[in-house]
Amino acid sequence: MAIRPCAPPAACVFLICALATAVYTAYPEPMNPCKSSLSRALLAVSRLDPYIVSCADDDASAVILTAGSNDKKIGGPLETSLHTCVNATLPENALPPFYCCPPKPTSEPINFTLPDPAEPLRVRRPVHAVGAEYMRKYERVIELMKALPESDPRSLYQMANVHCAYCTGSYRQTGNPELFMQIHFSWFFFPFHRAYLYFFERIAAKLLGEPGFALPFWSYDVPEGMRMPPEFDNSSSPLYDPIRNPNHAPPKVVDLEFAKPGIENNFTDEHQIQQNLWTLPSLFHGQPFRAGQADKPGAGTVELCPHNPVHNWVGNTTKTSFEDMGTYYSSGRDPLFYPHHNNLDRLWQAWRDLGHVDFTDPDWLDSSFLFYDEEARLVRITVRDVLDIDKLRYRYDGVGMPWADAQPPVTPGVNTKKGTLKSVRFPVSLDAAVTAEVMRPRVLRSRPEEEVLVVEGVESDGTDVVKFDVYVNAMDYEKVVPGGREMAGTYVSLKHPIMDGTGKGMRIETTMRVALNRLLEDLGADGDQSVTVTLVPRSGNVKIRSLKIVYIVE
Q1: Which residues face 395 on adjacent strands?
Q2: Which sign, positive or negative, has the C-alpha torsion 454, 460, 464, 467?
Q3: Which stretches does DSSP call E strand in 362-448?
Q4: Prior bond to 324 cis, omega within 30?
Q5: Residue 310 pLDDT more than 60?
Q6: Angle at the Cα of 347 (from 144 to 378), degrees rounded to 5?
Q7: pTM to 2 decimals?
Q8: For residue 243, is pLDDT > 90?
Q9: H helix or E strand, kind and range, residue 551
């Protein structure tokens, strides 16, 4: 999480960051940064968020950073206002419409209230199993939304613009209008999209006149759902979007690590399905993003894969920004966007059902978003409002979780050169594969901690698609079978074509995290003092600032 001081002297920054890192890595137990006011200040300027170092039972999320007479408060819940929504600056070749802000309200937003517990429980089922008759209902929903005037906030035009406004810089942070409210690359990814789908589904039910209508999901995480549903490939259907990749029409199996053409896997269907099952991640939420911070502190692994690859795989890669699905500003225009994100919401719920817990930080719980409801009323909804899907009156049914037990193979003899490893001076431009030794702050971790590799300062051009793979204990990574256990994670980005006023794409700087507990156990390396990390570029230009290992509670 980026907590930036207000322009301190460069030498001081270097010394303080070095000291903060030393405090954390050298003395993880007796000098816990969460339990010292001095260490907390060091954490703030060294960009180590308290969540990264497992500051449980600590509500002090706001930090005051001072430079001269200017005090900057970092912390607190984020919110937005339609009154300060501005037009995003998109590239010249973006596809219209260009204005993403919702219609101006006639009154201030009302606060969200949960639906009546007596309402029918909506059961969301997979597209591949829900049946043709039910899919005709979804076709009718899209047809009705397209038929509404563009000024109606319930129209597909405006529903798509919701995503555009929250993802391109149209919305600014209330109280900090110079800062973007970008819901990707952070801990808002899941709750924002859950709220988005909630209102989309209720609008759909209202238009259909069927209170029990439930949005179907595209279950590409199970073998029987790993193809684009054929209902979306019928050019005479409202579900059809002509701005898609024609090479990925059914029966093509989806590639859950896809970035762009030229680096595609040439697998058989059977091999691609197995590869997809090995791709599903273990870490879910992104990094904390608080009021007063710059956006994009770091995406969760689900956002990086499979979320981003599915967007890129569906989008038309002959378009400059892979429209519609392959870029933030236009992805909501494709009717497949909503079943795609519905599946991601299902994965979040499945993760919770496995015993994981969400954040309890009030900065997360009390942050809010704006949506129009089925009555065209502007509603402010908080993160805490969307955490219980039973109270939201829906549930998921119809598929299992085969990826949860998928076990990729270990490749022996791929880390025999560890003694010849040369030191690496970070930051590095990832022009070729880079291998570095990363020390583990402690070998014995306490339960329920997750040991996490953090790839810090992932910097790239937002108009580019970046992909790189992360291998652990595999200096000879070329020998690792595709999807092998040593391949710990994949970073895949979407195109983010916001221009910064110079005619160039805005630079993106973020982080990536990779879970290590089960990986080190599988590799027989759980007792090692260090691991070797190999970063392998696959697409785009990217710079990496550093590597480190931390401990979190998931």
Answers
A1: 123
A2: negative
A3: 368-372, 378-382, 394-396, 428-429, 434-439
A4: yes
A5: yes
A6: 40
A7: 0.87
A8: yes
A9: strand 546-553
114 against 41, higher pLDDT? 114
Q: What confidence tier does 1 reach under pLDDT thresholds 50, 70, 90?
A: very low
Q: How far apart, in whole angstroms, are the C-alpha atoms of residue 545 and residue 554?
A: 25
Kindly report the average pLDDT of the chain as a whole number: 86
Quick one: average pLDDT of 203-223?
Answer: 97
Decide: helix, strand or coil at residue 493.
coil
Tokens representing 181 are 């409210």
Q: Residue 345 pLDDT > 60, yes or no?
A: yes
**Residues 216/123, Cβ–Cβ less than 8 Å:** no
SS3 420: helix
- Which tokens belong to 53? 């170092």
Over 50: is that where the pLDDT of 59 sits?
A: no
Distance between CA atoms of residues 429 and 424, nearest Å: 11
Whether the Cβ atoms of residue 215 and residue 338 lie closer than 8 Å to each other: yes
Least confident of 9-18, 289-298, 511-520: 9-18
The CA-based angle 99-102-106, given to 5 degrees, is 135
Neighbours of 30 (CB within 10 A): 7
- For the packed helices 189-208 and 337-353, what is the interaxial angle rounded to 10 degrees? 120
Contact status, residue 470 vs residue 480, Cβ threshold 8 Å: no
Instruction: Report which DSSP code applies to 333.
Output: G
What is the distance, to the nearest Å, from the Cα of residue 483 to the centroid of all Cα atoms in its chain? 21
For residues 57 and 77, what is the distance between their CA atoms, to the nearest angstrom? Answer: 18
How many helices (H) and strands (E) are present in the chain, helices listed first?
A: 12, 18
Map residue 430 onto helix, strand or coil.
coil
* Dist CA 340 CA 311 (whole Å): 9
Tokens of 472: 């652990």
**Residue among 402, 513, 392, 507 nearest 451 (CA):** 513
Residue 450 DSSP SS3: strand
Eight-state DSSP code of residue 505 = B
Predicted pLDDT at 34? 39
